[in-house]
């Protein structure tokens, strides 16, 4: 940070810093900046900061740490954060955390298709084809449909 020049970081600055830490595998530094936001600068972390931290920790394979971070946050009921974590689980094929996070998402929003799709992706990634099929069957039984993708160029 450039405090020496009298420039103080703000809410947006920390999004950029945490994003950069995530994409350069600077886990320890990202943690330090995240903590310093509130402790040193009195900036309350928002959804963007938590999303960056989930991404940072997920890329580093620290899924349980990311899960714990969300559980203690004031945004613990935001399904988009849990979807980010479940997406990280799908990338790393961590079934234990994926099942736990998917269950939480399904409890929060039973009709949200992404929790089913991402859990099915984790099952597929580790070769548990029957479980992946069971998730698809569960979606069908509950009348849950995937939201089709959108091409923003033609929108």
TrEMBL record:
<dbReference type="InterPro" id="IPR046848">
    <property type="entry name" value="E_motif"/>
</dbReference>
<dbReference type="GO" id="GO:0099402">
    <property type="term" value="P:plant organ development"/>
</dbReference>
<dbReference type="Pfam" id="PF20431">
    <property type="entry name" value="E_motif"/>
</dbReference>
<dbReference type="InterPro" id="IPR002885">
    <property type="entry name" value="PPR_rpt"/>
</dbReference>
<dbReference type="InterPro" id="IPR011990">
    <property type="entry name" value="TPR-like_helical_dom_sf"/>
</dbReference>
<dbReference type="GO" id="GO:0009451">
    <property type="term" value="P:RNA modification"/>
</dbReference>
<keyword id="KW-0677">Repeat</keyword>
<protein>
    <recommendedName>
        <fullName>Pentatricopeptide repeat-containing protein</fullName>
    </recommendedName>
</protein>
<dbReference type="GO" id="GO:0003723">
    <property type="term" value="F:RNA binding"/>
</dbReference>
<dbReference type="InterPro" id="IPR046960">
    <property type="entry name" value="PPR_At4g14850-like_plant"/>
</dbReference>
<dbReference type="Pfam" id="PF01535">
    <property type="entry name" value="PPR"/>
</dbReference>
């Amino acid at each position: 940070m450039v405090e020496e020049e009298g420039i103080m970081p703000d809410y947006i600055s920390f999004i950029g810093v945490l994003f950069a830490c995530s994409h350069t595998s600077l886990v320890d530094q990202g943690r330090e900046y995240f903590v310093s936001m509130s402790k040193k600068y009195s900036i309350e972390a928002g959804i963007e900061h938590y999303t960056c931290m989930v991404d940072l920790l997920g890329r580093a394979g620290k899924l349980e740490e990311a899960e714990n971070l969300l559980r203690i946050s004031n945004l613990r009921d935001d399904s988009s954060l849990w979807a980010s974590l479940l997406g990280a689980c799908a990338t790393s094929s961590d079934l234990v955390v994926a099942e736990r996070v998917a269950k939480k998402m399904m409890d929060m929003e039973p009709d949200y298709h992404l929790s089913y799709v991402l859990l099915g992706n984790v099952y597929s990634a580790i070769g548990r084809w029957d479980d992946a099929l069971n998730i698809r069957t569960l979606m069908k039984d509950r009348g849950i449909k995937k939201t089709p993708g959108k091409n923003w160029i033609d929108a």
